[in-house]
Amino acid sequence: MKKHSLINIARLFITSSRRIFSYILLLTFFILLNASCQIHEIAIPQSGVSSISVVMDNNYPPYTFLDSDGNLKGILIERWKLWSTKTGITVQITGVDWTDAQIRMQAGEFDVIDTIFLTEAREKIYDFSEPYVTIDVPVYFNNRISGITDVASLRGFPVAVKADDAAIDFLLSKGVKNLVKYESYEAIIKAAANHEVIVFVIDQPPADYFLYLYNLHSEFNSTQPLYSGQ
Question: 49-88 burial, b if ≥16 CB within 10 A, otherwise e?
Answer without folding.
Answer: eeebebbbbbbbbebbbeeeeeebbbbbbeebeeebeeee
